[in-house]
Amino acid sequence: MGTIRDRGLVKWQSALIMPEHKALNKKIGEVDYFLNKKPILDEYQVEEFENNIHYAMEFHLPITFRHVRKCT
Fold first, then answer.
1. Which of the four pLDDT bands, split at 50, 70 and 90, describes residue 65?
2. d(C-alpha 24, C-alpha 22), whole Å
3. Contact at 8 Å (CB) between 71 and 35?
4. pLDDT of res. 14
């Protein structure tokens, strides 16, 4: 007898997206689901970020910045 061939994750992926589906996804907001919203910072949080940057520059420590894209 033959063996069963499992297609893995391929069986769960959609074959095509119709323009109606794409428009509906955009309307619902699923397209922007994974985008992070721009945080609202108060003056104390901004000052804390500035202090961390100054400390990293003074002691030559690595620091990572993450760019937040404006969502419309």
1. confident
2. 5
3. yes
4. 64
DSSP, collapsed to helix, strand or coil, labels residue 19 as helix
Q: How confident is the model over 10-46, as pLDDT tens digits?
A: 666 666 677 877 777 777 665 565 666 777 889 999 9
Which residue has 């992070």 as its token pair?
A: 36
Q: What share of the chain is helix, strand, coil (3-state, %, to 5)?
A: 45, 0, 55
Amino acid at 31: V
Closest CA to 21 of 32, 10, 13, 31: 31
pTM greater than 0.85 (yes/no): no
Amino acid at residue number 20: E
Burial of 25 (0-12, 13-18, 19+ CB in 10 A): middle
Identify the helix (H) or strand (E) that includes residue 15. Answer: none
